[in-house]
Structure prediction request, 132 residues.
Amino acid sequence: MDELTEVADAIADPVRREILVMLRDTPLTAGEIAAAFTISRPAVSRHLRVLRESGLVTDEQAGRHRHYSLVPSRLGRLAGWLAQFDAERSAWTRRLAALETEVHRTRRDRSRAEPTSTPRTTTTHHSEENTA
Prediction:
């Protein structure tokens, strides 16, 4: 199995995605992770094993506790693959912005070209203040 598929399979489960979010800022023990879920501890352990085998987390034994840490670099290839879709959306955003600019230019040019029946005047109102 290639790295991209392995990582995608690992993050396919919502529990595993939540574990990754929990580990984003700080390492946690298996017990701390399990306490956040209503599923059994053995089920959480299976999710942690999948994440560890995919290389998304590492574990380190510290006394009686096992600490899990996120390995963000493993998400890089998947993020790069997903970015191609953001680039496409970005291209459409640029195209729509260019279309909007052309619409504004056309409206401006038409309003300048149309003869006006009454001259437009701009009135500026000033307020006067009396200071003592």
Q: What stands out?
A: The CA atoms of residues 19 and 33 lie 7 Å apart.
